[in-house]
Amino acid sequence: MIPQVGSDPEAGMPQQTAIAPRPESAQTIAQRAVAVVPDAVSRPVKSLADTVWTKIDRKATAVAEFTIKQYRNRMSTWVVAGISTMVIMLVLTFYVDRMADVEPAIDQDGDGKDWDDDGYPAGQEWQYGTSDRDPYDFPGAPYFEFEGLYTEYTANGTFRGSGTFQYSWVNTSVPPHQQAREWLSWNDHVVFENMPDCPDGDDDWVPWDTGSCRVDEDEIRIRGRTVTGDGTFTAFESWEQFEFGSWVDGFEVDPEPRSKYIDEDGIDWDGDFNNPNQGYDDDGDCHDLPVSEQDSNGDGIPCNVLYVFDNGTIIDIRPDNNVDEDPDDAVFMKEVAHRSFISIFGRVGFLFILGIFIPLFLASGLIRDEFESGTLYYLLGKPIARAELFAYRLLGFLGLAWPFLLLLILATSLVTGFFGPGDSLFRFSDIAMWTGVAVAVCLTVLAYAAIFATFGIISPRYGMFLSLIYAIYEFVMMFLGLFQGVRQSGISLLSVSYWGSEIVNATAWLVWTDSAQMSEQAEAFGWLGEAALGAVWLTPFPTAYPLVNLILSVVMLLTITLLFIIIGQAFFKRREID
What we know:
The radius of gyration is 42 Å and the shape is rod-shaped. Residues 1-23 and 33-43 have low confidence and may be disordered. It starts with a strand and ends with a helix. Strands 3-7-4-6-5 form a five-stranded antiparallel β-sheet, with no helix packed on it. It has a three-stranded antiparallel β-sheet with strand order 8-9-10. A two-stranded antiparallel sheet has the order 1-2. By secondary structure, it is α+β, with helices and mostly antiparallel strands. Helix 7 packs antiparallel against helix 10. A hairpin with a 2-residue loop joins strand 9 and strand 10. The chain has 17 helices and ten strands. It folds into three domains: 55-103 and 328-574, no CATH class; 143-248, no CATH class; 264-319, no CATH class. 47% of the residues lie in helices and 15% in strands.
């Protein structure tokens, strides 16, 4: 309440009456906001510092506070802030859900698969020398042990092939693995039960369905079958030779879990960039190969991985066959997803969407709105230059936008730090990366604010339209800048989004120094997610040095900002105020 002075007829003394305050108009706010300016000019001073710096400080503070108060009282400000916050929260929800997912183990070399459904993984069958494609050839199964090839041979043992067998003793039993199926395959044992008689007149004819027939009580013919006994085996003339050996009875072997052969041969890298001889055959499947196949990379060292370096950077990885071929994909994929999120969301989410969205709807009217509302007349009615007013209005916008964006970046960094992959409670290693994102966002928002505000000064009527056209241009440049070929062409250099994105990219090179190594390893060892690394690890440009690019990007963004501030001030000085 505001006291009003009146008179009391009885006491003869002034009387105070309370009345309700009226709402302040925009013009009143503007007049009171800059009321400190004449005081700053007219007040006696004692030093040069008071004459120059105090005057500038009070002007800047007054105009910036007035600008911030304007934004705080506008519904559009809260709508923009609310939408931005909801977008960040929604994206972080997807990120947390992604980090909580359990990555399925991937068997790159296939030795964890049971290709023939016999209950034994392929890796175990390879160790026992059995076939991973034959369900009846498995670890512990009975097998034929070869001794020699003959056209006719008399012995007590196992005969395999096609011919006539005259015996004094024969084993009529059938191995268990053959009994388990209803059909007969090549080299199966002869089935004596219900064996048909051989027809007369054809000495080498045998029924194809049974593969055997009886000639006499102690003589049979077989075609592509196996028989064990004591006697003489004579090959058919058309077959020339048969195999002789011994039949080894089977033994019990417990099947090993398939998980034992998944992610069992990880990447062995000691971190020494002076040692090209890396890798180790953890599961032994390289040493099981013939000697001629153990040095496929040609470096003269069997069963290793050759790393090729160029000035301390890995440019190629050449593994020998079956070395480091089955790494742990879950750890790699989580790390790639985490880095990709920070890099892509830092560029697209913060730099472009919020970096343009907030200045477009809030900064484009820094001067234009004052033209339309009439408050510009009162702001310029005090001893304050138009160039100063433009700069201080821009400063007021940053006083609101920067803390808000930094708060969102801080919240995002905390979520990714606590929920990101790793053994520690918090990923402190990402702090430097988020610092780079924060610097890029602040400078990008500053540049966009100067550009959009200048468009509003150049054409108060069509300023928003010009800003939308420029925002579309920035979107195209940002999209094209994600492709290496376009980046190298230099087309995107004529945009704010490129230089802001390069700050993030250069920071990634400086912080995540192993990303190039991970990319080469992904390509060499078949890791999934190799494509996602491309979004994290863009080739530095315009120079080959990340630190130089970082400094150059900061300078370019400040230069663009200063250029548009000068342009805006020039147009502002020439514009008449109605």
